[in-house]
Automatic annotation (TrEMBL):
Keywords assigned: Folate biosynthesis, Lyase
Pfam families tied to this protein: FolB
InterPro entries, per the entry: Dihydroneopterin_aldolase, FolB_dom, GTP-CH-I_C/QueF
Superkingdom to which the source organism belongs: Bacteria
Protein name: 7,8-dihydroneopterin aldolase
Species annotation: Bradyrhizobium sacchari
Length: 122
């Protein structure tokens, strides 16, 4: 059985990108997380100690995403996946979507980004 904890719309200002102005000024990124785990125990006990703290997930995600300036979203998302799997042993797999709504692309678009899925045992 796999249950899901999710966080959507986490806005973080960071300095990722290939272009100089992206690393100098930075921009807003939006992160969505899906954390796959077994929630049967906390659904019975109703104890925070038996599950994953959403606040800790957000803090870990923010630190990993902002820690290093990456040229590619793939690198930034990979750092987040590694941090989550490292810090939260209850998480079996994580799906991360990183939106870059203000990417310097000469086109009119709503959103651009990547989705990355990593698991503890591929």
């Amino acid at each position: 059985m796999t249950d899901t904890i999710f966080v959507t719309g986490l806005s973080i200002h960071a300095r990722h990108g290939v272009m100089d102005h992206e690393t100098e000024v930075g921009q807003r990124f939006v992160i969505d997380l899906e954390l796959y785990t077994d929630l049967s125990e906390p659904s019975r006990t109703d104890r925070l100690a038996d599950t994953v703290s959403y606040a800790e997930v957000v803090a870990t995600t923010t630190a990993a995403f902002k820690n290093t300036n990456y040229k590619l979203l793939e690198g930034a998302a990979g750092a987040v996946a590694d941090a989550i799997l490292s810090h939260f042993p209850r998480i079996r797999a994580v799906k991360i979507t990183v939106h870059k709504p203000h990417a310097p692309i000469a086109a009119i678009f709503d959103d651009v980004g990547i989705m990355l899925t990593r698991s503890r045992h591929p």
